[in-house]
Amino acid sequence: MNMTSHTASDIPDERDMPITLRLAHRIHAFGAEHITPRALAVARTAFIDTIGVTLAGSAEPCVRILLDTPGVAEAPGKCSVFGTARKTSALDAALVNGTASHALDYDDFSQPMGGHQSVPLISPLLALAEERRLGGEAVIAAYVIGIETEIRLARAVNYHHYDKGWHPTSTLGVFGAAAAASHLLKLDVDKTATALAIAASLAAGLKANFGTMVKPLHVGHCCRNGLLAVLLAERGFSANLTALEHKQGFFNAFNGPGTYDATRIFEDWCAPLEIESPTMGLKQFPCCGSTHPAIAMALALVREDGVKADDIEAIHIQPHARRLPHTNNPDPQTSLNAKFSVQYAVARALLDGVVRLEHFEGDAHRDPRIRRLLAITRTDPHPGMPEDSPLQFGAEVTVTMRDGRVLSRRVDDLIGRGGDHPMSGEELWEKFSDCSKRAIGSSEALALYERLESLEAVTDVSQLARLMTRRTLPGGAEAERDLKVVAAPRNTLVETSWVP
User: Fold this and answer.
1) How confident is the model at residue 484 (pLDDT cuts 50, 70, 90)?
2) In this predicted model, what pLDDT tens digit does every residue of 342-367 receive, in sequence order?
3) Which SUPFAM superfamilies match (predicted)?
4) What CATH architecture is 3-281?
5) Can you tell me the distance from the alpha carbon of 443 to that of 446, in angstroms, rounded to the nearest whole number?
6) pLDDT confidence bin for 391, thresholds 50/70/90
């Protein structure tokens, strides 16, 4: 499939056309008929994974504080706040659910984006679809073109954008959210371009706040702002369509002259679709994706060499240099800090042979056995993994044992569970169940999962949203739902070689 040639006849001479308008023509021309079977399978999987981690995140302190803040989620509306019994406006639902979706840092991620591709899109799309009683097929098509838009912009500005300190999940995801919501509402080309131009002024998110509650708040505001841009454009709001390339526009203000290449946005547009790329991965571990290659190598040492934590004398972690600035946290003092500590994540893998949600809760990071391992850990960038390499997710973990043995495992590129290392259907269900039952109960988690397996056949997303809310009993008490699920559902979503 080559969308560039497919849409060429629909697009006028682009030589003097603003970038937002060029993007808008492509977004408008994209339809469900352009979604390949592989893209459909990946999209379904992304919705399953993102909804699962959103439900798990709905009880996190950052979400509870947000909900307790006067004015948040108090607007009347038809949209669900997932994991609760509350209804609110589409904008507030996008804000709260978007924050919840990233609260555990357990959502899928992308190398070219330098961040998380699904969370900017799914909360605003579900809120909009629930409010306007739209179906799953339209939501999936909007999601796919949202992925295309945000990652194409990422290819234009990274890695300078990422290294400078911006959080691309939010600064670029806001454009994906605007593109996706514009497509879902079937805005015309001019209004879609306006929405993208508005989004340029609503982009924000600093990596300085990684490891705090602000990081998931970046996503909540990205979701809300992208949707707000579209709702304003729908009603005739104006914006400068050159807001990306203007001398004081997004590219020059966020990156700087000479540090971006806007032509990369349109090269081989949708050929293939970005969603089919092997450079995206599901998170098997509930912590920063940059720690995952090192975790996987630590687990390999436990599994293949029988390494026991009590017998370790020294640990040496050498990630790719780009994975280290935000994860080099040798002494995490909070559970959120621990999510951004490659030292803690590797120590936990070596100690327990698994890395689970419970390891980033409460005082798990203060475990004396973990503290001993942190004290004997050294971390530095891997000298054999160049910063300009196309392989950006590598790591080597070396342990020196008390008996004198030196054991090591290395991987040059491991972007979560994807590519030639896909997550099985059983593993996907296990993650979804573990996440979602915390908010809605095990039996409802199973029913929700089965509906999401055929998301494109759902005719009204508001019916699906009911499965994501906590029921209340007469008098206002919340229902307890912890029925045991004895068998995993059928899953056909992860049969391709790519799983995000």
Assistant:
1) very low
2) 999 999 999 999 998 899 999 999 99
3) 2-methylcitrate dehydratase PrpD
4) Orthogonal Bundle (1.10)
5) 5
6) confident
CA angle 446, 130, 431 (to 5 degrees): 30
pTM above 0.90, yes or no: no
Q: Which residues contact 258 (CB under 8 A, 6 or more apart)?
A: none
CA contacts within 13 A on the Cβ side of 109? 26
Q: Quick one: pLDDT band at residue 443, thresholds 50, 70, 90?
A: confident
Give per-residue pLDDT as tens, 290-339.
Answer: 999 999 999 999 999 999 999 999 999 999 999 999 999 999 999 889 99
Q: Is residue 316 within 8 Å of residue 310, measured between CB atoms?
A: no
411 beta partners:
395
The encoded tokens of residue 319 equal 């990630």
Does residue 86 carry a pLDDT above 90?
A: yes
Domain with CATH 3.30.1330.120 in the chain: 289-411
pLDDT in tens, 28-85: 999 989 999 999 999 999 999 999 999 999 999 999 999 999 999 999 999 999 999 9
From the list 178, 170, 175, the residue with the least C-alpha distance to 233 is 178
Structure tokens, 258:
């000479």
CA dihedral angle for residue 434, residue 106, residue 464, residue 177, rounded to 10 degrees: 180
| Average pLDDT, integer, range 463-472 | 82
Residues of the chain with CATH 1.10.4100.10: 3-281
